Amino acid sequence: xxxxxxxxxxxGAAARAMSNFGALDLHLVTPYEKAFREAVSAVGAxxxxxxxxxxxxxxxxxxxxxxxxxxxxxxxxxxxxxxxPLDEAGKKxxxxxxxxxxxxxxxxxxxxxxxxxxxxxxWLLRIPTRAEHRSMNLAQSVAIVVYELSRGGSDAMPxxxxxxxxxxxxxxxxxxxxxxxxxxxxLSGYIHRRSAANAEEKLRRMxxxxxxxxxDAEVLLGMLRKILWKLKSD
Length: 234
Known about the structure:
By secondary structure, this protein is an alpha/beta fold. The protein is built from nine helices and seven strands. Strands 5-7-4-6 form a four-stranded parallel β-sheet, covered by helices on one side. A three-stranded parallel β-sheet has the order 1-2-3. Helix 1 runs parallel beside helix 6.
């Protein structure tokens, strides 16, 4: 998933690398240049690029995913997430792919992923570059990550895909829980208006750390809706 990508050639080269290693589902969040589908760098990957989906926000793009990971070079940022090197991250991602969809976010060439983007992530990964030169070309970063995911075979747990009780909650459900919880906290007076945006990101990060199962998430959402109904009717 490429977020606010500025150079269409990077999008084309990323699509080519994805096609090389069997990652065939490309999502784009507000790409800067709309002519990316004609990028000459997408050699052999024209069908993948033609079928790429565009979204207006990260929240919308990751709705059907049960695991969301942000790729970061870290820099001077103070991280609020667990961070794994690529080899360790690859093992965790391959296991998760057996039971649901996984999104890996790559940020803009200029700014990377924002704190708001990262608030949608369960954890982060880093390609182990030299500390003196952490920044990498976007398309090259995508190529390295998809290669790592393809080379280890499947570490997936058999049968996990068909067990609702063990399946992770998808981001769409978690976002509905986040909205209901935030509304309940607003009505109770817990959240001050001036800190509402910051509170939303903190709540989302907290929910992701809970690692809710799909069935538990639906129960929690039902509880919150009942609480909201009661708060509004009093």
